Amino acid sequence: MIDPLFFPGGDIGKLAVCGTANDVAISGAIPRYLSCGFILEEGLPMETLAAVVSSMAHTAREAGIAIVTGDTKVVQRGAADKLFINTAGMGAIPADIHWGAQQLAVGDVLLVSGTLGCHGGDHP
């Protein structure tokens, strides 16, 4: 959850686009396409939504990413905290990059940061 929606250097929309682009890029692909879903709390000012959408469009355009689909739901006041954005991205792996398990060789080093497979909840 992002609160406030706007902060020095960015906003929830820019963060949504950049975060998903980063997820695609760290997998070895060049981010190309993005989907986004909005959950809006009833009463969210249209100016707020317009500013977030404009920021997302600008950020995606700068990164060469097309926002290709989306969905919007409005929920009753109090059922959400202002605005939620869900994004998913797709990219293209450059033809000159050959990676995967078949590329591993004896003596290669695998670097791991943090605990594998733990996403939230209680973990060591």
Automatic annotation (TrEMBL):
Residues 5-92 form the PurM-like N-terminal domain. InterPro entries: HypE, PurM-like_N, PurM-like_N_sf. One of its GO terms (biological process) is protein maturation. Signal peptide: none annotated. This is Hydrogenase expression/formation protein HypE.
